Amino acid sequence: MQRLLIVSNRLPVTVEKRKDGLYFRPSPGGLATGLGSFYKVYDSIWVGWPGITSDKTDREERKGIGAKLMSQFNCHPVFLSQNDIERYYYGFSNKTLWPLFHYFTQYVIHDKNFWETYKRVNELFSEVVSKIAKEDDTIWIHDYHLMLLPQYIRQRLPDATVGFFHHIPFPSFEIFRLLPWREEILEGLLGADVIGFHTDDYARHFLSSIHRLLGYEYTLGQINTDDRIIRVDTFPMGIAYERFSKAIQAPQVQKEITRLRRKLPECKVILSIDRLDYTKGIPQRLEVFNTFLERNPAYKGKVIFILVAGASRTQVEHYRLLKKQIDELVGRINGKYGTIDWTPVWYLYRSLPFPTLTALYSIADVCLVTPLRDGMNLVAKEYISTKGGEKGVLILSEMAGAAKELGETIIVNPNSREEVVEALTKALTMPEEEQIERNRVMQKRIQRYNVMRWAEEFMDRLVHTKELQKEMHARILSPEMNMRLLGDYRSAQRRLFLLDYDGTLVPFFGKPQEARPGDDLLQLLEKLGADPKNETVLLSGRDKDTLERWFGTLSLGLVSEHGVWVKEDEWEMIEPLTDDWKEHIRPILELYMDRTPGSFIEEKGFSLVWHYRKADPGLGTTRERELIDELLNLTANLNLQILEGSKVVEVKNSGINKGRAALRWIAKEKWNFILAIGDDRTDEDMFDVLPETAYSIKVGLSSSLAKFNLKSQADVLLLLEELVLGGLG
Ligand code: GDG
Predict the structure, then answer these.
(1) Domain assignments of the chain as residue spans, ordered by start
(2) 292 or 726: which carries more pLDDT confidence?
(3) Pick from 379, 374, 378, 369: which is nearest to 288 by CA?
(4) Do domains 476-575+656-728 and 593-652 have the same CATH topology?
(5) Under a CB-based contact definition with an 8 Å cutoff, are residues 35 and 451 in contact?
């Protein structure tokens, strides 16, 4: 069986040192609970921090901890010092990333020392992982503590299979851009092959940041970097459904239910369970309960709010303040409404054993899950699953990822006290059959998409992405194929080169002056042309005056405006064309230019082009779609075609393309060697008309009619230089 290395900040086992020795107990938290069952089924090793700092242990003890963790729990420890924990965990992870990603920008601290330690600890994780990883292992990294790790592992193990799952929200670009180290964080994640999120919104936000900050294009969740395909996808995390649905059958849970019922007065139970975290909206929830009692005096003595809040990140000031705030609020409500026989809020500041947790789920009439932001929220799913065929209403915040899947429940905006108070009244009076029916639909869904399925789908996607990468790599011009191409070139008497310009011979620039050919390139083209066996043609979308200015003195064939004009000896039009359509189309393009700051219009002899490379990328893409839509309607009867290039939309006479221009040269004589190279959609027309024996190369890692791919424009120049030299040999 293939091995899986799960990597997360914390191991599912926590080591504690007491006077009488070391203790090993399960770690609290969503990730450990969720992944625990999956990890046992696979041949897995879990890598992470065991919860004890290295300052508290000596070498011998650490050796012992490592050995026991491996032999009994299949875990491999990464030992961190107190200083690491303060700066990497409490610092960068929980004072910078956590508040930022949950939209609590006022809590964010930007501290260079935190960042430096975060980098160092991620590096340390990569050192440990690469030491134990075997060639075929799959490495699955979890969460915001380790966002640089994918890249660090990729640097050490270039061919590794690496997945990353992000458990918390990924904020919109406007929030993410606030982070001073935003590019590094994104580059870090791009070391993975698959990057997973709980919801489409988070995935979309991430892609938008990648696009805006790193400039990568993506289609349908696939990012093409220079050397790899990376998949971004949505995998809403599930729970171990049976563990909860069957929980109440256990005698221990039954005992707990009976005990709780005995202790509780005859009343309705509202339950809430979270880590004590400011993202969970606990004070707001208490305020809701307060208002509810104020408005519904009849419920006094007839309802109890059980508030379970597990201690969390107590070393961070905001958490300590929050604890104080909650203590005070509970005191205020209980002081205001409580009687000798009735305490309105039962507040438990601790983590409960599983039987008590599920017993509480089982007896609760309402579960109030109202985070202000939450990546997913597993409590919501656990509550519904524990209910079986029993009644019980979940009130769920629309700010939790889980709201996307649990639409049958009562969804609320947690910022609206009015709305949540109303929801509480509705929940407490909802007919039982309706409650059961709503739960049944959700239970089915949670059962189907459980945590196993979640993990399996992630793994499948990883395998699939690796296959895609392999296919793509198989298309990259290999050294052997390169040799063959060179051999064919040498032995050929007549050779034809069909070369695109922007993005193929020079990097793709927005402004014409930046794309002017340098001396090196001009010399290379000159050398290529100097061999009497060669004929070289540049096929470009640029206008003929520019091409003439740049290349007019070289012995090259030239094609301008994607095939409108061709130059063998003199410039001529490929067929007689008119441009009277321009006056209809120009006003539309002008409208889009005005509505899209940074975009501009280029007018060529027989085409009009709208460029948006300098515009805001998001707006540019939206406007591009709108413009194409509008143009398609308008040009239906005008014998025009619309070309979508790289950040350009071009309108021109139909039937004119690079393929048609290329044919003019292809048909001229019997070539023994043809090499065509291009990078964008307009070059596909050229690839389409090539004879079977021709070599064709697409620049960049995306699919194409070309036979081969080269990673970058720099590789094209290397190949051409090699040919020039090879031809002399
Ligand atoms: C992060 C994201 C995302 C809680 N109290 C007790 C207890 N728990 C268990 C629950 C549940 C888990 O802890 C909490 O998970 P959540 O998903 O609700 O929240 P986070 O800890 O913030 O988790 C979150 C999650 O990662 C997974 O991706 O959903 O959005 O923030 O399983 O049952 N368990 C026991 N006693 C308690 O007192 N036994």
Answers:
(1) 4-64+73-79+119-234, 244-448, 476-575+656-728, 593-652
(2) 292
(3) 369
(4) no
(5) yes
The secondary element (H helix, E strand) that includes residue 9 is strand 3-10
At residue 230, the pLDDT reads 96
Name the CATH architecture for the domain at 244-448: 3-Layer(aba) Sandwich (3.40)
Tell me the C-alpha distance between 360 and 269, whole Å: 9
The residue contributing the CA closest to ligand 1 atom 23 is 30
For 593-652, CATH number out of 2.60.40, 1.10.3470, 2.60.120, 3.30.70 equals 3.30.70
For residue 358 and ligand 1, the question of a CB distance below 6 A is answered with: no
Residue 404 in this model has a pLDDT that exceeds 50: yes
- 632 has a pLDDT exceeding 90: no
Q: What pTM, to 2 d.p., does this model score?
A: 0.84
Among 170, 376, 384, 458, residue to substitute to test ligand 1 (most atoms within 8 Å of Cβ):
376
Residue with tokens 């070059």: 683
Say yes or no to pLDDT of 728 above 60. no
Number of H helices, E strands in the chain: 26, 29
pLDDT of residue 123: 98
Which are the contacts of 299, defined by CB distance < 8 A and separation ≥ 6? 268, 292, 293, 428
How would DSSP label each residue in 54-103? Answer: GGGS-HHHHHHHHHHHHHHH-EEE----HHHIIIIIIIIIIIIIHHHHTT
What sign does the CA torsion over 273, 275, 277, 283 have? positive
Please report the atom of ligand 1 found closest to the CA of residue 33.
32
Ligand 1 atom nearest 237 alpha carbon: 28
* Interval between CA 32 and ligand 1 midpoint (Å): 9
Task: Kindly tell me if the per-residue pLDDT of 263 is higher than 80.
Answer: yes
Q: What is the mean pLDDT of residues 667-689?
A: 94
Residue nearest ligand 1's atom 32 by CA: 30
Residue 496 has φ and ψ, to the nearest 5°, of -120, 130
* pLDDT value of position 578: 84
**Tokens read off for 260:** 């709780």
Query: Under a CB-based contact definition with an 8 Å cutoff, are residues 458 and 165 in contact?
Result: yes
Q: Can you tell me which residue has the tokens 């990140």?
A: 313
Active-site amino acid positions:
500
**Which residue has better confidence, 36 or 608?**
608
**pLDDT at 319 > cutoff 60:** yes
The CATH superfamily label for domain 476-575+656-728 reads HAD superfamily/HAD-like (3.40.50.1000)
| CB distance 31 to ligand 1 below 6 Å | yes
Q: Is 405's C-beta closer than 6 angstroms to any atom of ligand 1? A: no
Whether residue 275 has its Cβ less than 6 Å from ligand 1: yes
Q: How far apart are CA 435 and CA 431, in angstroms?
A: 7
With a 6 A CB cut-off, is 415 part of the ligand 1 pocket?
no
CB-ligand 1 contact for 382 (6 Å cutoff): yes
* Residue 168 contacts residue 102 (beta carbons within 8 Å): yes
Give the closest residue (by CA) to ligand 1 atom 4: 274
Ligand 1 centre and the CA of 114: distance in Å? Answer: 26
Q: What is the pLDDT averaged over residues 128-137?
A: 94
- Would the CB of 33 count as within 6 Å of ligand 1? yes
Q: What is the pLDDT of residues 543-600, one digit of tens each?
A: 999 999 999 999 999 999 999 999 999 999 988 888 888 988 998 999 899 888 889 9
Query: Is the beta carbon of 399 within 6 A of some atom in ligand 1?
Result: no
In this structure, the chain runs to a length of 729
Q: Is the pLDDT of residue 729 over 70?
A: no
Superfamily of domain 4-64+73-79+119-234: Glycogen Phosphorylase B; (3.40.50.2000)
Cβ count near 435 (within 10 Å) = 20
Closest protein CA for atom 33 of ligand 1? 379
